[in-house]
Amino acid sequence: MADTAEKKGFKYYWGKFQALNGSSVFIAMIVAMIIFEVVLQITHAGTGSGLIFITPSNLMMIFRQQVYIGIVAFGLTLVMLTGNIDLSVGNMLTFCCCIAASVMMKTDNAALAVLATLGVGAACGLFNGLLVSYVKLNSFITTLGSSSIFNALALIVSAGTVLIIPATCDPAFLAIGKASFGPVSILVVWFVVIAVVLGLVLSRTVFGQRLYVIGANPIAARYSGIKYKRDLTVAYVITGLCVGLAALVMMSNALSSNPQAGSGTEMQIILCVVLGGVAVQGGKGSVWGTIIGILFYGVLSAGFTSLHMSQYLQWVVMGAIMLFALSLDVLKGKGVKLWKKK
User: Can you tell me the distance from the alpha carbon of 283 to that of 259, in angstroms, rounded to the nearest whole number?
Assistant: First the structure.
């Protein structure tokens, strides 16, 4: 047994690592961090400031900035595993933020704000799920249309103005996003808890396995007795709940809601999920991979900002990365070999 373990060596464990979902993205993230550090060291030569990009404080800041997007991305992972998509999560996030801010301004009741925001998020997810699963509308077109509806509702709730929650509001509401457990921020706790819960749902429950089957072969799923419509609707509702939670955490920190705050974030969220290895066609992916995709996106965004790259150019680069990732995913889905093994 000992001889067998010794013979395995580096190649064996390297192969095991490569087989993990998101391993290639993890390597790309490490390489990107090193590149950003080298470039910043060159541009700041002679300052003697030591490490610039790869510092504990900077990495923690990157992580904290991705918590809101990450929570929504975990929910969207379930939907994309079924081979569907939700383009409304950005404006849904804005709508939920406006609901949370509006309720807190009018009632100053944290419990009511939490129930209202999560309820609205779940209702939005249910609306999308029913249209896609029971009415059998295309998920791309459906959620693109519902995105406009949620955007309009956000403008109606906010009356087109920025909603500001008083800093003296219910302390329980402030604790949702500002509390800490010693050195650990509650933002980290929310991120880890949602990741663990949904990760266990996908890997340890029958419902999670059914989502994989639906994405891999929806026709076979229907004929095998899986309640396709119900499970797909539940996946959309879970996504809506994740959006509602992200809105609560965001509002607890920012204490203000811009009626256009979440517009455009859907592309960032989808990019995180795709970079994490979730197949666009469905049936492949994991929450672990989505975590790597979230962190990789955060590293790229922070690195480009450190290099003083304009926001517009960042969008161009991120868009190119998304197209590249989607192209690779489609080619692999069609059985195209991207490289030959010796």
Answer: 35
For 143, residues 6+ apart whose C-beta sits below 8 A from its C-beta are: 85, 86, 87, 88, 128, 132
Stated pTM of the model: 0.88
Residue 342 has pLDDT above 60, yes or no: no
Q: Which two tokens stand for residue 93?
A: 């996030």
CATH tag for 54-331 (out of 3.10.350, 1.20.1070, 1.10.3470, 1.10.760): 1.10.3470
Q: Return the structure tokens found at 3.
A: 């001889």
How crowded is residue 210: how many other Cβ atoms within 10 Å of its Cβ? 21
Number of helices and strands in the chain (H, E): 15, 4
What are the structure tokens assigned to 181, written together?
């457990």
How far, in Å, CA of 30 to CA of 300, rounded?
11
What the block records as the tokens of 141 is: 């077109």
d(CA 53, CA 39): 10
Name the helix (H) or strand (E) containing 67. Answer: helix 67-81
Q: Token pair for residue 18?
A: 């490569």
For residue 135, how many other CB atoms are within 10 A of its CB?
A: 9
| Residue 101: per-residue pLDDT | 94
DSSP tag of 180: E
**Domains of the chain, residue spans:** 54-331
What is the per-residue pLDDT for 8?
Answer: 65
Please determine, for residue 275, whether its predicted confidence score (pLDDT) is greater than 70.
yes
Coil, helix or strand at residue 257 = strand
pLDDT of residue 119: 97
Mean pLDDT over 85-98 rounds to 94
Tokens of 224: 């095998």
Q: What is the C-alpha to C-alpha distance for residues 65 and 265, in angstroms, rounded to an integer?
A: 13
- Three-state DSSP state, 163: strand
DSSP state letter for 84: -
Instruction: Let me know: does 140 contact 259? Beta carbons within 8 Å.
Output: no
